[in-house]
Amino acid sequence: MVEADLEPPPILKALDAMIGLDRALPGFTGTIAIGVQKSASEVQWWSARCTDRARGTWTPTPPDETDVAIVLDAEDGARILRGEPPRLGAAIFGDAELWARFHRRYLGRKSFVSLRLEQNQRAQTRGPFGLSQGGRR
Question: What is the pLDDT of residues 49-60, one digit of tens each?
């Protein structure tokens, strides 16, 4: 196994980071499991349990109480990160509405978390007293 094989797929790393930043109520409840197929016989799993807040965890298989599971290949994961839908070959099992709500919140173009990340990035480029690099607000 080479070092690159140990790295989680980018879609799972991004979701884990986004979920970790989100302290608000997700607006839905359920358990979502996302697997990325790394080879013909290997799927790397990550899951989120959404209740009073979302909590993500790395799992060897989907949790028993999973409400929706989606299995992607690396290309579909990259497509989702670019804001594109997965190809028709992506396998979704379970509550498709829960997946849609999760997707809108965490992966949509203007999801709650993406807006928050944009705000944080803008705030980091400002100097003292909220002045931008050019000296204007």
Answer: 999 999 999 999
Determine which helix (DSSP H) or strand (DSSP E) holds 35, and give its type and residue range: strand 30-39
DSSP letter string, 63-117 = -TT-SEEEEEEHHHHHHHHTTPPPPTT-EEEE-HHHHHHHHHHHTSTT-HHHHHH
Residue 133 DSSP code? T
Strand order in the sheet with 68-73: 54-59, 42-50, 30-39, 68-73, 91-94
Tokens in use for 91?
A: 């396998």
Question: How do 91-94 and 42-50 pair as beta strands?
Answer: unpaired
Distances (CA, A) of 28 to 2, 17, 19, 54, 103: 39, 19, 14, 9, 12
Q: Which domains does the chain have, with CATH numbers?
A: 3-118 (3.30.1050.10)
pTM value? 0.73
Nearest to 89 by CA among 107, 104, 70: 70
Of the candidates 92, 120, 131, 105, the residue with the CA atom closest to the CA atom of residue 15: 105
Least-confidence region, from 7-11, 102-106, 107-111, 119-123 = 119-123
